[in-house]
């Protein structure tokens, strides 16, 4: 056998078995199966997007659940969901939903006024001391069929130590058409009462503030009445100043409720009627004036006007509130159902307002209450009575720590807390 015919020597290197792929073959096939790079980036993007979506739904779900169980967001689920929506950037959707709801549920036309809606109002009280400002004059009803006692002012709430009422109340139909509804009015004497703006962590936000809910036991010894402020600041088209701090810049031309450091309160246009001085304690703006020069301002009945709030618009007859000032400085609050913004302005004018502004709207946010109890002694919400019995909250919520909106408090001035000094003040 020749050398060339000899069998090959066995190799010391292991040979691949029948089921083992050669290395060069494995690499080649793997490269053939590899997807383009953009596919992997797309997969990563979808994973990230899915994670973000899950986080967002979790966040919105948790915050909505908390809101639906939070009384400061409203008394009912509908109000709480609306507040949550506005707080989380869904204001346009909420406004659309409320608009459609009010289109389908308009205020009733005609009918007889239900006087059971009337809240407080002391009957047959003889005021023996001299009122610093002349008591308000009775108001003629806008309806051809007034109900008994309509437009007649009666004292309400705590009196001064020598028997002067700081608040009078009366009740009117909102207009000549929606005659089954009743609107409440409160007249306040700023010479007897001192005003204070209480700020909230929700409205205007921020803080802490010197005056905030709950009303303290010490402050309650002189409180006579409490009432709501304006819109959420995102819808108010205005600013907020208190505690020597410009929380939100004040808008020139904005309707403003101003309180000076001596407790005097008024209503007017910022930059025309009021300017910033060291004597200013608080300014709360809300939209534009609805009463000026003793008349309703032009354009209130225009359904497309948004100067007085895009929320619900001005033409819907819903729960609204407003604040005005008379020529002699008295304050007038109006609040109740079935009010268009034009009706609200007309009611303020009937009560003698020369300037007036809209405050908050919707049944959950229109609040006015007066308080009784011995002067100089602490009281709580149980001493309060709503201006209208149909108002959603009782005055007790102003004494609750969970209340996070801003509001106004009217209290007996110190000089009227003592009988002897009150008598001297009333003579002077």
Summarize the helices and strands and which ones pair or pack.
Elements: H1 23-33, H2 37-68, H3 77-87, H4 91-104, E1 154-159, E2 165-172, E3 183-188, E4 193-198, H5 217-220, E5 223-228, H6 233-236, E6 240-242, E7 245-248, E8 255-260, E9 265-269, E10 280-285, E11 289-292, E12 295-296, E13 318-326, E14 331-339, H7 341-350, E15 353-361, E16 368-371, E17 384-386, E18 407-412, H8 419-427
Antiparallel strand pairs: 1-2, 2-3, 3-14, 4-18, 5-16, 5-18, 6-7, 6-10, 8-9, 8-10, 11-12, 11-15, 13-14, 13-15, 16-17
Helix pairs in contact: 2-3, 3-4
Query: Biggest β-sheet, characterized?
Result: 8 strands, antiparallel
Distance between the termini: 147 Å
Beta-strand proportion: 15-25%
The order of strands across the largest sheet is 1-2-3-14-13-15-11-12
Put simply, the count of helices is 8
Tell me what you see in this structure.
The structure is a single chain. The protein has helices spanning 23-33, 37-68, 77-87, 91-104, 217-220, 233-236, 341-350, 419-427; strands spanning 154-159, 165-172, 183-188, 193-198, 223-228, 240-242, 245-248, 255-260, 265-269, 280-285, 289-292, 295-296, 318-326, 331-339, 353-361, 368-371, 384-386, 407-412. It is α+β, with helices and mostly antiparallel strands. It folds into 2 domains: 37-104, no CATH class; 116-427, no CATH class. It has an 8-stranded antiparallel β-sheet with strand order 1-2-3-14-13-15-11-12, covered by helices on one side.
């Amino acid at each position: 056998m020749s050398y060339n015919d000899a069998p090959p020597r066995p190799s010391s290197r292991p040979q691949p078995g029948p089921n083992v792929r050669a290395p060069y073959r494995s690499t080649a096939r793997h490269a053939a199966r590899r997807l383009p790079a953009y596919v992997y980036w797309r997969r990563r993007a979808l994973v990230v997007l899915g994670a973000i979506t899950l986080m967002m739904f979790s966040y919105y779900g948790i915050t909505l659940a908390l809101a639906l169980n939070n009384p400061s967001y409203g008394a009912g689920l509908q109000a709480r969901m609306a507040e949550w929506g506005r707080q989380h950037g869904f204001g346009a959707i909420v406004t659309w939903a409320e608009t459609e709801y009010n289109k389908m549920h308009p205020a009733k036309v005609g009918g007889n006024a239900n006087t059971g809606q009337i809240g407080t109002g002391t009957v047959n009280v003889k005021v023996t001391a001299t009122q610093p400002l002349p008591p308000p004059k009775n108001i003629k009803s806008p309806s051809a069929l007034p109900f008994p006692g309509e437009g007649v002012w009666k004292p309400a709430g705590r009196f001064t130590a020598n028997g002067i009422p700081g608040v009078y109340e009366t009740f009117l139909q909102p207009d000549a058409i929606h005659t089954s509804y009743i609107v409440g009015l409160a007249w306040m004497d700023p010479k007897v009462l001192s005003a204070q703006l209480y700020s909230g962590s929700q409205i205007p936000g921020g803080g802490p503030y010197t005056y905030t809910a709950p009303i303290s036991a010490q402050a309650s010894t002189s409180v006579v009445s409490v009432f709501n402020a304006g819109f959420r600041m995102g819808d108010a088209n205005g600013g907020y100043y208190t505690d020597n701090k410009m929380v939100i810049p004040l808008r020139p031309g904005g309707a403003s409720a101003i309180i000076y450091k001596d407790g005097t309160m008024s209503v007017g246009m910022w930059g025309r009627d009021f300017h910033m001085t060291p004597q200013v304690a608080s300014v709360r703006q809300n939209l534009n004036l609805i009463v000026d020069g003793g008349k309703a301002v032009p354009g209130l009945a225009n359904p497309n006007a948004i100067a007085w709030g895009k929320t619900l618009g001005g033409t819907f007859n819903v729960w609204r509130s407003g604040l005005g000032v008379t020529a002699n400085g008295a304050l007038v609050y109006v609040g109740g159902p079935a009010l268009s913004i034009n009706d609200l302005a007309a009611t303020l004018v009937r009560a003698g307002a020369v300037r007036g502004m809209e405050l908050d709207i919707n049944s959950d946010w229109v609040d006015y209450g007066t308080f009784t109890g011995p002067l100089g002694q602490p009281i709580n919400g149980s001493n309060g009575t709503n201006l209208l019995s149909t108002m959603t909250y009782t005055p007790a919520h102003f004494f609750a720590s969970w209340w996070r909106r801003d509001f106004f408090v009217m209290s007996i001035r110190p000089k009227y807390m003592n009988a002897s000094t009150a008598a001297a003040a009333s003579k002077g």
